[in-house]
């Protein structure tokens, strides 16, 4: 094939390397905008024309803080042609979906397709190029499943003017720009010691001098990404375990405990808030992937599995407890449909799972979310069609004095709304309603604190039995009393 010289390698203004970002989704669009905001020329490419149109400001962008202001800047362009985007740049970031597969790993078909497209574009040029995978994958995938695709399609070998790196961002939805530009560290996996220089140059410019770049092998970087996410879920689940223990302790208060535990610098305070369990497009799937890797190489997978099993157990147990408090035909309002405050994303939302459980028990459920109502409607389409769940985005459409209100996310405006509704029972998993605001006539249930408005002697008795005559100790204290061991064993 005839190779054409590409204009890619150097920026015409003599600036930092020009970057192509393949995949302008929830993460890619903001990452591309962040790269362009710091002086580099960036060309985004997406197979979805609506995402391409967002870059020029022709369509409203995602509701990421700061993103709208960065669209339409002259250094940031987008197109639908992989060849155009790649040949005008010297570094290509790939941030396309890697959905979970039925074993718990990540599907690679979108990344493979992207690597083919990059390979075909690079086959036409002799210019040096660096390909950086940023999507979440299992350790080994980049080198063993994806590098051959790139080499076959380009007719070039990695190491010979073609660099391959793995560099996933640590960004949470709702703060992608901030997290990308100000991370605790940047993670850079390189094919061998001599590669990755172009990416380091990009990072040095974008991230500033204070951010360490952890450069390591591709496989170590793949594992590091997975390790951070799975460690975070373990931390959240640990906080939820403390919350469930505090439910049964006279005067228990999970925030007092986690504040103190988190102030130990070996532990740290972040993601140590007991609440509603973890959801979203990322965290719920990463333990399954780590467990799969562990199992395949013969390492105990139980730690990762137990985290997920405990998370599911807490959700199911909390939902059952609410169902037990309601009669069929009762009305329940769930405030917040997204997996966390500040986003319209409903993937693996704990709130929608609760809606399903309550509706299945015959409760009339109304879910409120200003941003996520339409996405929630798609997820709960069957229940909405059956008339068991109603989804609204206007406070005026909420029923007054329902039997139950649940404040599902930490969105500040939901607290006022919950109080206005004057429910009989108010479930406040995140303990957002301060005691002086508890409305008269409403029973308030806060996860991680004993039910102060209706003290439950049975819960305290469970603790007292620790010191009772062993013959009187209830079975539930013994192993298996919660059914958790069965859950782990089933996985
Ligand atoms: N959502 C999150 O908070 C985070 C996600 N990640 C990882 O980043 C990756 C992407 O995630 P999201 O941005 O959430 O996905 P997304 O689904 O929001 O966006 C992916 C984009 O890629 C585009 N695309 C698919 N195939 C393409 C191709 N061949 N060429 C060009 N564009 C293509 C799609 O049209 C879509 O716009 C996943 O691996 C995810 O695990 C990493 C950190 C955070
Ligand atoms: O790899 C990824 O995709 C990303 O996954 C998470 O980002 P995200 O899922 O957007 O959101 P988080 O803010 O971490 O929250 C995740 C879930 O944990 C819950 N959570 C969070 C904090 C906490 O203390 N307790 C708790 O239950 C939240 O409500 C939410 O459901 C990580 O925070 C990012 O660093 C990572 O890059």
TrEMBL record:
Substrate binds at residues 225, 279, 340. NAD(+) binds at residues 46, 51, 98, 136. Signal peptide: none annotated. One of its GO terms (molecular function) is UDP-glucose 6-dehydrogenase activity. Pathway: Nucleotide-sugar biosynthesis; UDP-alpha-D-glucuronate biosynthesis; UDP-alpha-D-glucuronate from UDP-alpha-D-glucose: step 1/1. Coiled coil: none annotated. This is UDP-glucose 6-dehydrogenase. It comes from Geodermatophilus amargosae.
């Amino acid at each position: 094939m005839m190779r054409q010289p590409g204009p890619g390698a150097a920026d015409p203004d003599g600036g930092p390397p020009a970057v192509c970002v393949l995949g302008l989704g929830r993460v890619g669009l903001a990452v591309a905008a962040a790269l362009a905001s710091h002086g580099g020329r960036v060309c985004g490419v997406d197979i979805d024309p609506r995402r391409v149109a967002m870059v020029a400001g022709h369509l409203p962008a995602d509701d990421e803080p700061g993103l709208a202001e960065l669209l339409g800047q002259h250094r940031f362009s987008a197109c639908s042609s992989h060849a155009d985007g790649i040949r005008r740049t010297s570094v290509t970031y790939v941030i396309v979906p890697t959905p979970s597969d039925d074993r718990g790993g990540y599907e690679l078909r979108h990344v493979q397709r992207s690597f083919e497209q990059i390979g075909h574009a690079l086959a036409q040029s002799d210019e040096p190029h660096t390909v950086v995978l940023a999507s979440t994958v299992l350790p080994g995938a980049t080198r063993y499943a994806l590098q051959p695709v790139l080499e076959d399609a380009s007719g070039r070998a990695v190491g010979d003017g073609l660099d391959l790196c793995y560099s996933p961002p640590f960004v949470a939805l709702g703060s992608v720009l901030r997290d990308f530009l100000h991370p605790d560290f940047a993670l850079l996996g390189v094919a061998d010691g001599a590669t990755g220089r172009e990416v380091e140059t990009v990072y040095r410019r974008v991230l500033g001098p204070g951010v360490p770049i952890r450069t390591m092998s591709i496989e170590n970087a793949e594992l590091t990404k997975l390790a951070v996410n799975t460690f975070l879920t373990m931390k959240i689940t640990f906080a939820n375990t403390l919350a469930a223990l505090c439910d049964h302790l006279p005067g228990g208060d999970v925030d007092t405990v986690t504040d103190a535990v988190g102030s130990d610098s070996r532990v740290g305070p972040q993601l140590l808030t007991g609440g509603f369990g973890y959801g979203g497009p990322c965290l719920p799937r990463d333990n399954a992937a780590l467990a799969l890797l562990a199992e395949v190489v013969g390492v105990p997978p139980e730690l990762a599995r137990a985290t997920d099993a405990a998370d599911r157990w807490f959700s199911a147990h909390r939902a059952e407890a609410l169902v037990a408090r309601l009669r069929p035909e009762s009305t329940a309002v769930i405030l917040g449909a997204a997996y966390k405050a500040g986003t319209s994303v409903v993937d693996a939302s704990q709130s929608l799972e609760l809606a399903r459980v309550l509706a299945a028990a015959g409760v009339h459920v109304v879910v409120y979310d200003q941003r996520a109502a339409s996405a929630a409607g798609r997820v709960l389409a069957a229940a909405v069609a059956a008339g068991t769940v109603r989804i609204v985005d206007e406070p005026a459409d909420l029923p007054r004095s329902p039997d139950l209100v649940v404040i599902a996310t930490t969105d500040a405006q939901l607290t006022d709304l919950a109080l206005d509704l004057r429910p009989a029972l108010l479930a406040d998993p995140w303990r957002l309603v301060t005691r002086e605001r508890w409305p008269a006539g409403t029973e308030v249930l806060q996860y991680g604190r004993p039910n102060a408005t209706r003290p439950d002697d049975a819960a305290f008795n469970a603790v007292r039995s620790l010191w009772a005559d062993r013959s009187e100790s209830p079975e539930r204290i013994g192993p298996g009393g919660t059914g958790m061991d069965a859950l782990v064993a089933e996985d």
